[in-house]
Amino acid sequence: MNKVSLEIMGLTYSESSTGAYVLILGDKNSQRRLPIVIGSAEAESIAVGIEKHKNGRPHTHDLFLRFAHEFGIEIMEVVINRFRDGVYYAMLVCKQGDDLTMVDARPSDAIAIAVRRGCEIYAYESVMEEAGIIMEDMEKQDDEPEADPINIGAGETSLDLLDLEALEELLQEAIDNEDYQKAAKIRDEINKRK
Questions:
Q1: Which CATH superfamily is domain 3-162 in?
Q2: Is the pLDDT of residue 1 over 80?
Q3: What are the tens digits of pLDDT across the range 34-79?
Q4: CA distance 189 to 172
Q5: Sign of the CA dihedral running 146, 151, 154, 160
Q6: pTM
Q7: Widest distance between CA atoms in the chain
Q8: Pair 155, 10: CB distance under 8 Å
Q9: How far apart are CA 102 and CA 3, in angstroms?
Q10: In terms of DSSP bridges, do strands 149-152 and 99-105 run parallel, antiparallel, or are they unpaired?
Q11: Environment class of residue 141 by beta-carbon count within 10 Å: exposed (0-12), middle (13-18) or buried (19+)?
Q12: Torsion angle (degrees, nearest 10) of CA 141, 127, 147, 48
């Protein structure tokens, strides 16, 4: 089955689903996008993984990778392999010695693991054909106002996904880089929580 290589384009609060976020994955070779609604805990874990932020205590996804490492299991890639009745399905492709194993996973969990591991994220072409949207179509949709995103490299994340400790580190980094506009947004988010 043909696989499409994806990258994380953005992560933002969903105005249409209370407490949910929208993870936007983009086809690396076209304008197609795959929007996936995910829970707040998974969104936070993905954001922390992208930021490479180390918490005092590991997230479940960190624990999973540590467990896999201890038993000699390597996570090779993540594949979003089905879209049925509005629900996405994914699998982790794992290798232990010479054995390859496919493990079912929610896409949000699989992607949280992928950003920590640095492995590729794919979707089958059939999923992209059924659930993908073209970038121009996304720009025409004004249904969901965009959250206040902050640049995190290839994608974006909302400040409200990060805990206070992560925000304070990000604030110091922005000040050190003399990015005062970014620093002001982070400061406002910190003040809003206090």
A1: Bifunctional nuclease domain (3.10.690.10)
A2: no
A3: 999 999 889 988 988 888 777 677 778 989 999 999 999 999 999 9
A4: 14
A5: negative
A6: 0.70
A7: 52
A8: yes
A9: 15
A10: unpaired
A11: exposed
A12: -170
